[in-house]
Amino acid sequence: MSVNITIDGLAVRADAGDTLVDVAADNGVYIPTLCYQRGRPCLGTCRVCSVRVNGNVMAACTVPVADGMEVEVNDPADMRKALVELLFAEGNHNCPSCEKSGRCELQVVGYEVGMMVSRFPYRFPLRDRETRPKKIWLENDRCIFCQRCVEFVRDRETGRRIFSIDHRGSRSRIVMDVALADRMSDQQVREAAELCPVGCILQKGLGYNDPIGRRRFEVRRLRQRVLEGEGQ
Amino acid sequence: MSGLQELMRRHGNDRARLIDMLLEIQREAGYVDDQAIQRLAEGLNLSPLEVRETISFYHFIHDRPPGRHTIWLADTVIARMNGYKEVRKALEEACGCVFGQVDASGSFGLFDTNCIGLSDQEPAMMVDDVVFTRLTPERVRRIVTGLRAGRSAQSLAAVKDRDPTDSDFAAQLASSAIRQRGPVFFSPDRDYPALVEKLVTLLPEELIARVVDSGLRGRGGAGFPTGLKWRLGREAEGAEKYVICNADEGEPGTFKDRVLLMESPEDVLLGMIMAGWALGARHGILYLRWEYGYLQARLQRLLEEWQQARLLGADILGQGFAFDIRIQKGAGAYVCGDETALIESCEGKRGTPRVKPPYPIEEGYLGMPTCVNNVETLAAASRILEKGASWFRALGAPESTGTRLLSVSGDCDRPGIYEIEWGVSLNKVLRMVGAVDPLAVQVSGPSGECVSVARDGERVFCYSDLSCNGSLMIFDRKRDLLEVVEEFTRFFVDESCGICVPCRAGGVDLLHKIRLVRAGRATRRDLDDIRQWGALMHATSRCGLGTTAAKPLLTTLDRFPERYEALLAPDEGPLLPSFDREAALEAHRHAHRILTEDASS
Amino acid sequence: MSRKLVIDPVTRIEGHGKVTVQLDENNRVTDARLHVVEFRGFEEFVHGHPFWEAPMLLQRICGICFVSHHLCGAKALDDIIGAGYASGVEMLPTPEKLRRLGHYGQQLQSHTTAYFYLIVPEMLFGMDAPPEKRNVLGLVEANPELVKRVVALRKWGQEVIKTVFGKRMHGIASVPGGVNKRLDARERDRLLKGEPGLLSVDQVIEHALEGVRLFHNFHEKHRREVDSFAKVPALNMSLVDEQGNVDYYHGRIRIVDGNRDTVAEFDYHDYLEHFAEATEEWSYMKFPYLRSLGREAGALRVGPLGRVNVTRSYGDNAPLAQAELERFHDYTGGKANDMILHTNWARAIEILHSAELIRELLEDPDLLEGPLVIEPGEAAWTGEGVGVVEAPRGTLLHHYRADAQGAITFANLVVATTQNNAVMNRTVRSVAEAYLGGRAEITEGMMNAIEVGIRAYDPCLSCATHAMGQMPLQVTVQDAEGRVLDERLR
Amino acid sequence: MKPKNPREIASHELPATPLDAATRAAREEKIQVAMIALCGCWGCTLSFLDMDENLLRLLEKVNITRSSLTDIKRIPHRCAIGFVEGGVANDENIETLEHFRENCDILISVGACAVWGGVPAMRNMVPLEDCFREAYLEVPTTEPRAPKRIPWHPDIPIITDRVYPCHEVVKMDYFIPGCPPDGEAIFKVLDDLVNGREVDLPTQINRYD
């Protein structure tokens, strides 16, 4: 069943139950996301896609569109920006030397929301890294705890989780099962590294193979990829 | 360790029962060691880290020895008003270790915990499986000496020879001061078989209509109409349906569910059976917070008695109605008060609130329609069955029918449980409880609002005004309100599950701000930040914990701005007051001092 | 009454320096020091990072010779994975030439910045000109056309760097075993032939020659002052090729004395056997020296003056620079030149030399084709690497170790400016005595003379404060019978 | 501020050759800019030079007072703009930044180090004493009897416990991220300010690396 909603006043037709963030993209409205990827289940962890729906702020990746919905994307822009700034202050996001620069979703979303500095105090947390697996390096300094790896990376044979969460709250960390990680194929390792929106899951030894100017989001901006699809 | 295989078999090798398994292992071994984790992982087809994921989430599951005697002292605002600090110090001295540690001999483990539902008799602590209340330094010294001498916590609590399944067992440990009784709760001599008989003669639709008609709304705080929830549950499609009683009473300052479960647990069971009948569910889960462990044996016995009496089980009163109840023990997580987090916990996972929609009433426990009701809601429902909808509706206020239980604590002469009709004013309640010179009242605990007696005294308790979840903490004029605010803010940081950014990260920054204010290093800009960041958390967080975590700050800023302004730093000179120059330079002095000593030695 | 004169901060240098001069009641200089007043600590916090990150991270030590740090790191990484000189592997032509191109581009850019923006003002306006005048603003007012040429020259050097590394500063090209990109013909041609707003390589050489002429004009006007300003004898150090000619990217370390006779020559992988260090409480920068000669006699001079003193010639691929080099050598009759202000002459010559080297490279087809990386395979892993290059300010060395997982366990950096610490302090002392000694009235201009002496070294105190200036040395722990029990670093 | 030694005379306090009146007047007409590099690598200052021809355009409108490119060691008079590179890592940085805040109308944090501490702030995860121990004590040298020293002297600054972003020490008005920011980005912000436009750094030239 198709429904009518408005996005910043723009009248939009969509199928009932479709996810708001996708509907917006299909109609040329870019809403940044860090945990959500089109075609995958909603994780609802980063909240960076927060918009106003009938007056209430909601994460657009969690909202199935319903008839008559009035959506404001522009209004909570500063909230989205603040959430990105929170992430930059919470971890150690050293873009200058990070191999994910130019390929990092957090970084480009930072550009998209116009972040120059974080309004929150920079914490410089001390976090352990996991370097034991043969092919993968887990640089927890940069983890934004999006849960993509936890939910979507499984041991092909047993279906068990390779990445899990340890502790809770601000002490939460992603941990990796070394034995299972060492069973991952190079292909699976590459996919995991690409799944990670930041430079936390690294494929060992080949960090800077893409020259500046040819890095993923320099070739084509994330905004374009979202609005026009990865294909083109 | 074939016992472990047996244990898993008993729980049907079902991952959803992981928490039960972990708690059982811990009961035997004191903690869950690596080997047990490995074995569980293999048996349940999980990675060992997935098992740790659950262990590390919960406060009361240990993966290393927590001491022969494990002591949990409740660190709450109310306890801090009643000598908590002295008690804490005495415990550290007596046990020979600081909090968060186990003493060298491995005899004592000292741990902090948040409110354990005894706010009218704090300071209070849990030692092994019993609780001690109204603590003083002398008392804790005596207790620790006793434990050293080889006495058990039970014998020190004078319940050694008591049967924990007796109805008055819990009363030996914790009093249930019911200061004011009312028409709905704690009514004596109810004929439960007759009531169940009456229930099954009604059509589920009739029952639902009656509850709708009564105007009963959820007592957990949100106030969702109970009848409507039951109707949605009935209409929802599902091979199975579940009824869950939320007895994870974690909101600091509330303890009325504990008292209900001590005084009239039958009301709660009956309410659950009603919900089961209404939905057409066959399974009920009573989710009992870990801190109320001393109620478990008695509740378990009650369930067995009712099964024997065929008030529960495969064929209730021969009417072909199958409904049974199991107790799911929590393991220490405030966030499990959120119904979806509670469901995750029932499935043996971390208590991470789910993304909504879908709502539990459509997809809940194991993906099936699930109706989660609060203890008090179910108890109230049981009286509606007995006395009828109009009787109930006649009580209270138009949109807020019936009565509600208040757990009153703080600066008043008579802390305890009060059953009030919706619609009474705050001032009236304050007089009722003997509040002396009250300044502020924390309504609904940290997640509620801090109101000013001067400005809000005439506001009334009802869903459209002072919508109270049962917690009422009173602070008089002598109290340092901002210490309370800091403590509440720390509580939310402590209890955040960490899944969403605003709550996980924002909470820490708010805590930093209130500490800045209390240190006299804040300016107006910092107060503006608190408002802005608080609004951010409120608007964007994933669950109720995050959306309310800033309320202690926001509501006191709104009601008691002068308390903040009095502490603001003069904003003059180029250096920001928040920058502590001397502290920043101390590190080098210190390094030079100790390192040159190193070097010369 | 005794006095203490302070220059704080020393200006027109990179980084944070301060000078103190003690005068007694008879206005005699009793002490004169250059203090390095900053401290960062890269070697400590790089621990635990992935080894392949080191060149990106550690180039942040410096905003002007980042390419040198990047390439030092790159060479060390080549060693670590077993694709380096330590394993006897020669770098492939394409990556080596690309690295050299970027490196020469930086030398041109760095020297141009130092020479024209920081040093030339004194040549034109004099040491006691108004402080507001003797700087780039004064140049713009006095000779805007010259400044335009300087801007264009520096810009071209930066564009060479950007072409190779993707960014004008702190770029990325070197990966373990090679580089991540070739040049395409278009990129090559715009540097070679220029384009609107960008010089051609021939124009660059023209501008470079002007730099040399600038020194000669200045020298002819003030020959006595320039030659006698400060003479600081010291050993001279540089990387050289088999012919004993300077090689800015790779070679053996050679150290020559005042007669330009070799006193030491060794493979840079053995640096720990040859260098020692001292610490003073009054500076964050340490004082390295040649171990065999001790702290006084073993003080080293690196950078342009050190290099032109060491190098025999520039070979035949840089005729213009070669001619200037011969003139330079002849001026001191083949002896080592220890006239501090002649460092600027040497610097001007090196701008020209880099320009000529770049022209030669740009015509090399290897920049456009050929394999980019050596992949030696896991078996070749050594876990340890040392890289050395001739940075604009002198010999720069990076030394890392990584564990089997690839985490850095040890990093040691020896930077050029630190090598010059002792001679810079001697220079400060000598200038202070010459210009301040015995004078009751001291002017700002006299104090500036001290800065002029320091600027001649173009010290990069940013580099010097990369760490707390540490240089771990190899110790051999022996038992009673003298058997070696343990050989370790640090 | 550290107490000043009365016998200590700074070079910039000594009599200096005055700037000719005409030049002085011409410069006073312009917008006054002061520049400083705190704890950084000097790269942002060089990126300032990377404005290339634009630098010359800019210099028609602005005059640079204190900076590491000129020989003016203290801000001589009120400045409209303060250009700050680097984070705060020692007491001298603190004093300098105070000096800038007191004497400039607008302060700009230029580059990663000023904005959030940058690469030097990676030491914030290591206690300072460990840095020192690592650097000065646990280094076997060839002179085993040489006195072990930690730099600590009235003539050198005291190092702060960690590297602070400038805006955590004084109020900063604008921020240009990047390590370093391109000359283009620096020019855009300065040009906006000089021409009284609202400062706007477009997404296309905003960079963090």
Give a short synopsis of this structure:
The complex is a heterotetramer of chains A (232), B (601), C (490) and D (209). Chain A is of the alpha+beta class and 232 residues long. Chain A is built from eight helices and nine strands.
SSE map:
The complex is a heterotetramer of chains A (232), B (601), C (490) and D (209).
Chain B: H1 2-10, H2 18-29, H3 34-44, H4 48-57, E1 69-74, H5 77-81, H6 84-95, E2 101-102, E3 108-113, E4 125-127, E5 130-132, H7 137-148, H8 153-156, H9 169-173, E6 178-180, H10 192-201, H11 204-214, H12 226-235, E7 242-247, H13 256-263, H14 265-279, E8 283-288, H15 296-308, E9 313-316, E10 321-329, H16 339-346, E11 370-374, H17 375-387, H18 389-393, E12 403-410, E13 416-421, H19 426-433, E14 438-443, E15 449-452, H20 453-456, E16 471-476, H21 481-495, H22 501-518, H23 524-540, H24 544-548, H25 551-559, H26 561-565, H27 581-600
Helix pairs in contact in B: 3-4, 6-7, 10-14, 11-12, 11-14, 13-14, 14-17, 21-22, 22-23, 23-25
Chain C: E1 3-7, E2 17-23, E3 29-36, H1 42-45, H2 54-58, H3 66-81, H4 93-125, H5 136-142, H6 144-165, E4 174-175, E5 178-179, H7 185-193, H8 201-221, H9 223-228, E6 235-240, E7 252-256, E8 262-266, H10 271-274, E9 275-278, E10 287-290, H11 294-297, E11 300-301, H12 304-310, H13 319-331, H14 342-362, E12 384-391, E13 394-402, E14 408-414, H15 416-419, H16 421-435, H17 444-455, H18 461-464, E15 474-478, E16 484-489
Parallel strand pairs in C: 6-11
Antiparallel strand pairs in C: 1-2, 2-3, 4-5, 6-7, 7-8, 9-10, 12-13, 13-14, 15-16
Helix pairs in contact in C: 3-4, 4-6, 4-8, 4-14, 5-6, 8-14, 12-14, 13-14, 16-17
Chain D: E1 8-10, H1 21-28, E2 31-37, H2 43-49, H3 53-59, E3 62-64, E4 79-85, E5 88-90, H4 91-103, E6 104-110, H5 112-116, H6 128-137, E7 159-164, E8 174-176, H7 183-194
Parallel strand pairs in D: 2-3, 2-4, 4-6, 6-8
Antiparallel strand pairs in D: 5-7
